[in-house]
Specification:
Structural class: alpha+beta
Distance between the termini: 53 Å
Strand content: 25-35%
Number of strands: 5
Number of helices: 5
Strand order of the largest sheet: 1-5-4-3-2
Helix content: 40-55%
Amino acid sequence: MRALLAAAILLGLGIPARAGDRDFDAVVQSIESTFQTRRTSIPLFGVAKFFVKISRPGGAKQLDLAIFEDLHIGRSRLQELDQTVREAAGERWSPMIRVRDRQEWVTIYARPDGKKDMALLIATVEPGEATVIRLKVDAAALARMIDESPNRAGKCLVSEQNDSEQQCED
């Protein structure tokens, strides 16, 4: 009886976590079906996910990653890929950052995830490859990182120009 109760509790705990992944799964499945590709298997990625969940680096609490290699789409289909990601993500996600180039693009979508967290859905495409990342992060840690980013980026640019061996300051 106790084993059955423990199994029911564990199963119940897993349902809310899985529900948050539906949008990520929908994006991945949509890319796979639209572009006749499969995500690349990443050995030991479960260990990395576990590390993120336990140690919470930079306020990250959950990490999902899908990499699509050998994705041969021309510039004409980049727009189609962007639309595929947008539609699969759904209306709950708001575009936060969008960067476009001739052959590369990055879009970061965001939405609240509970009272203290934000979910980020990051989609990047470059020649031959696409990556989709879902992060659940502490909203306060994300805000601090965004506030500090201009200062850190400036320090990194200065150090790279002066001495290529010097590391960026923290």
